[in-house]
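Side project, low priority. Logging it here so it doesn't get lost.
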Amino acid sequence: MLSPWIRHRLVTEPEVAAAVLARHSPAACAKFVQEVCWRTYWIGWLEQHPGAWARYREGLDRLLERLDRDAALAERYRAAVEGRTGIACFDAWAAALVETGYLHNHARMWTASIWIFTLGLPWELGADWFLRHLADGDPASNTLSWRWVGGLQTRGKHYLARAANIAEYTGGRFDPRGELVEQAAPLPADAPFVREALLAPARPLQQVRSGLLVTLDDLHPESACASPSSRSSPSEAWASCAVLDASEVASPLPAGAVAAGFRAAALEDAALRQSALTQDAVARVDAASVVDWARARSLRQVVVSHGRVGTTRALLGSIGPALDAHGIALVQWQRRWDAVAWPHAARGFFAFRDHIGALVGEGEAMNRSA
């Protein structure tokens, strides 16, 4: 249940790793730490293969248009997201997703597999459904996990939900024998993605009037990069601070109430913590009002955490030129955790796993320095 907080970095990965290692041996908590690092891996992979996100969104847009003209597909889709398929376990998980904003990892895998292979629905529609309702919905983890279940992410491997497995791990609560497609080929392979170089982090300009902007990808302003201001008082570290509300642009469809409520509360919490970093009132901005905020406070640069592939990078891609037109720099800083981890995420997770020990050791040092 830490996942929504880690996804938005209300707590950071180094904090989690350090807290666990303070109480358990590295061997005892290795699996837990690996699970924390899976999110880092997915993000790092997508950073180097941004075409996967672009292709997913293009496919989603086409499918949403198709729903308007294909009544049969639209009804099958509605039955699935409303929990009316007649498959008791799937329907229960569909209801839990909407009501709680959460599903256990096993339930996510089973639900995605049934969606793709038993119900025969397009994976992009399912990925969008999850992303809109999960409180920990993350463009990288969500998109690439759905691709993995379908057999697109790791060639020759896909995940088929099996009734016996569901019965065993739900303690007999569900036993969908005879209801699931348990033998199926992976989805047809798509074209490989071009690997792109990781974006180099920028350094904030020194001794200029600066504002700190936080996004839903990183709501931990107190451990953000040091202010380039010469002031020493924490309450004057930044000329101004703002939170960027991008909670409604992850999907063309509305977000679920639980996920939207969590993100709204997270933004409010981050704003309260930002207030200790500036004497100015913390602003709430959207992409259209960032320039007005920066100009009203005579900022020369806006410092923001690295815009991850997905919603945030697209937003910063539009904000940057708008600020530049007024002589205001947009500077994207990067956490050391990401800088150390992402270069190792270009291939499969097992290659990445070999570097987790060094990453966690680096993370402990990061946490102590913070």
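Brief comment: The chain has three domains: 1-49+336-370, 63-194, 210-333.
Revisit when time allows.
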